[in-house]
Amino acid sequence: MKRFFLSTLLSMCVVSISQAPAHSEWYESEHSTLEKAKRMYQTGRFDEARMMFTDLINGSGRSAETYYLRGVTYNSLGQPDKALSDFNQAITLDSNNPKYFLGRGLLYSNKNKYDEAIVDFDSAIRLDPDNDIASTNKKFCIQAIADKKKKDEAKIAKAKADAEKLAAEKLAAEQLALNPPVPVKKGRSKPATTTTATTTIATTVPVSTPVSTPATPAGPTSAQLRAFEKKQAELAAREAAVEAKLEKERQERQQLAEAKLEQQRLLKESKKNSGSSRSVKKNVDEQPVAEDVAPAVPANRPIRDKWALIVGISKFKDSTLNLRYPSKDAKDFYDFLIASAGFKKDHIKLLVDEDATRGHILSELGDKWLPRVANPDDLVVIYISSHGSASDMDVGGVNYLLAHDTEVDNLYASGLPMQDLTRIIKGRVHSDRIVLVLDACHSGATTVADSKGLSRTTNVNADDIAQGTGQLVISSSMPNQVSWESKKDQNSVFTKYLMEGLKSKPNLGEAFDFMKGKVQEEVLRERGVLQTPVLKSKWQGADLVIGAPAVNPSPALEPEASRPGQATH
After folding, report:
1. 153 belongs to a structural domain
2. Residue 546 needs a FRET pair 20 to 30 A away by CA distance; which of 113, 132, 296, 300 works?
3. Percentages helix, strand, coil for the chain, rounded to the nearest 5?
4. H/E segment holding residue 557
5. Rounded to two decimals, what is the model's pTM?
6. Is there a contact between 388 and 440 (Cβ–Cβ < 8 Å)?
7. CB 337 within 8 A of CB 308
């Protein structure tokens, strides 16, 4: 794990979905194939993207850019050697594009080939002196080389000292074996009644006959020396293993810290780049200013009642977007709230698959249900598991949650805008205790079925979503990371550990810390990348306990007459 991840390069540097007519001639064009391949990559359908890039390379679309894009795709598929081959080809065809050197440099850096990486970063900086990513990673590689040199020198010095110590101990043992100490024999006085015969026998013993002495302890035998040496070797091996483990843990902590700093830098850049467009909306979106001022009412009040809207979409109207586990995640979270968090069954709405249309979600959220049941002292939990679109898929740079009937080519009219989601909730739902949980960074890949993620720079950004007193937003990953499904369970890693955390930890803050650590650990161990859940809060007073009992629950809202698409749960 380095300071920047190669898997984000495509979305940062090259992916942009062109707006063009969707007639057959356009789709048959080379430009259409390239843009469609980019879209396949962006939605996590890496194998389909790879095949499209390969078709372009084998046909008339052979170019440095196409080789580069396929190289990034190979890297996302876990095939770095093929990625390196494509990066080499891209640089051969066009040696004046800093992006190609940056991509290859990051790949070398990920393979711990720091010298080669530095050469490529230097080339990228020469072609683009303002390339901060290349500069940052060059510094990282230089530091990594210095750290490795220092570590190697320390190992050599320790090995030398150990060898000298062992040689000295062995020499001492050999000398002891050759020259064992002879104990001094103390004489004993003879009794006065010794007979004459005895005296005669004693005096007739020849002088040359050896005098028998008691047995003395012998020095270490060769077998004992071998056992000693074996023990020394075992201790040295154990010590080396412990040191290796400690070094690995130190490196992982350093990598996590570096990744966190990089995410913060990218977030600042993203905000800076989007500042001009946000300033246009500022007067509309941020009125009135008093919205973020702490309320006059006491922050620590008992929970009067509890409500939840749970949404999970695995099956979309556009079947190419289908996912595996979001609807199951939603059903499991629904069951968890009832069984373990004290929510009444008739106080929860569950919308999955065909029931989770854009109109139905907005109706339950802002018109037909939550605004009619939630009071100021109530707790409202909103959980959504679905696709989250990247901002560069929309002309206005807006991020969207995808409903069952969302059209990816018409996000403005058919998607749920994420940046406006809590403003909609705040304006329509009367509760001042709202928890929004977004497991919404998913891919539609069936060939990469265990990935739920989009690689993008500004997708579900909790900084943009959390606002107002009493609102709390939990996102499954940082803005430019991928959210993953578990290899061991039929859930997303995020939702699985969120439920475990809420079961074992009373406070939401403690549950989040538990979940965050577990998610990072499992994804890092099984994928070799980071997934870092994010919590943004404007909460007032004591930490929230989702399982706290409702002190004055209300009856459920009577269901309306049957209407199309209404789910009853």
Report:
1. no
2. 296
3. 55, 10, 40
4. none
5. 0.48
6. yes
7. yes
